[in-house]
Amino acid sequence: VPRALGCADHSPKKKLILHMDLNNTILVSDTVTGQGTVAALDYFLTTVTWGKMSKHGKWEWLSDSASLLPPCSDASSYYSQFGRSPGFTSVAGRRFKGLLEEHLELLRWPEGVKEDRQLSVKGEDGRLYHWILPSFFQLIRDLAWEGREFAIVFRTFGTDLPRVLKAVSRAVNEGAHPLFPDLPELKLRVDMTPGKIRCTKRGVVLSRAEERVSTRDGERGLYQYLSSVQGLSGFQDHFDWWATNTFSIRGGKPLWIDPFDQNVQHVFIDDNIRQNDEDTIVSPKVFLEPGGHDTRTAGTAELYDISLVQTDLLRAISDRSYFTQRVHICLKNY
Fold first, then answer.
1. Is the pLDDT confidence value at 17 over 80?
2. How far is the first Cα of the chain from the last one, in angstroms, to the nearest whole number?
3. Which of 50, 79, 152, 320 is 20 to 30 Å apart from 89, CA to CA?
4. Are 67 and 214 members of one domain?
5. Residues 124, 276: Cα–Cα separation, whole Å
6. Is residue 157 a part of any domain in this protein?
7. pLDDT (tens digit per residue) in 23-71
């Protein structure tokens, strides 16, 4: 990405806080379900391939290509119709086998580079793959080159946070990534202590080591805390709360947004962000007045590609500037 790309059309003065999911956003594996690279990508394809049930109760494909959004209003994803389907591309989704193989090939760890215990992973097929998508490291490099002040906050329901922070630290501080050996020049700090975000009917509590911030003192405190973070850090969000709220916007990962704040923009990138508030993973809380403490829950559609980005995992694998492009779209639309 040319250095001038970000400077011409959006002021680099605004600080950017990027909240990023891990599984199926920057990682192609899932500790929650125990899936390796091949199974995780195979599963992802069930969520982006579309068809419908015929009058005779038979599944009919409506498209031969994968897409985040349905090709027509009455289409259902294979996953929403049939749930998890191990070996999808070998059975019902055979027509998408080529897509799986093409993207696995793009994920391959560079030939002739020895495996790295933190940054590479052995797939179920015995081949070496990138554990963290190169497009993530490209994003960090691009934002730094643009002269933009930014911080990355990993937000996951899973348990990979310590491992991810360790791997990212090796790449960012030690220059251990074969494709991005120059990252240490950016002088980014990685906070290795994972935090926790816990939600109840009474509110939200964020804690990390000795730090603790709660919405009991109003929601502004959490917004200020997350707006002031530096470098790269991470929090484990509250899966049980999302499940209790039937996987809807009401129980999603909280994201505070202040439309009156000219100095900070928060963006959340997650593959489970969907324009269906009964089936989405982020709960955006938008402040009602300048400096105020009260928020409203905004619908996903209102903030889509402004503060919320639904990861297109296939594009994040195939296009190294994918995340940078999505962030630029949000900056432009804000």
1. yes
2. 21
3. 320
4. no
5. 34
6. yes
7. 999 999 877 778 899 999 999 999 999 999 999 999 999 999 999 999 9
Are residues 154 and 135 in contact, defined by beta-carbon separation less than 8 angstroms? no
Looking at the structure of the chain, the number of domains it has is 2
One domain, residues 297 and 235: yes
**Residues ≥6 apart with Cβ < 8 Å to 35:** 29, 43
What DSSP state is assigned to residue 36? -
Residue 309 lies in a domain: yes
Q: For residue 116, give both structure tokens.
A: 């790295």
The rounded distance, in Å, linking the Cα atoms of 166 and 171 is 9
Q: Are residues 250 and 325 in the same domain?
A: yes
Tokens coding 243: 């499940």
Q: Is residue 177 located within the same domain as residue 292?
A: yes
Q: How far is CA 82 from CA 60, 75, 78, 88, 307, in A?
A: 13, 13, 6, 11, 31
Residue 146 lies in a domain: yes
Helix residue ranges per DSSP H, 111-160: 134-145
Domain housing 249 = 5-28+132-333
Same structural domain, 213 and 311:
yes
Are 139 and 47 found together in one domain? no
Cα 236 off chain centre by:
13
Q: Which tokens sit at 273?
A: 């962000």
Task: Give me the mean pLDDT over the 253-276 stretch.
Answer: 97
Give yes or no: residues 68 and 146 share one domain: no
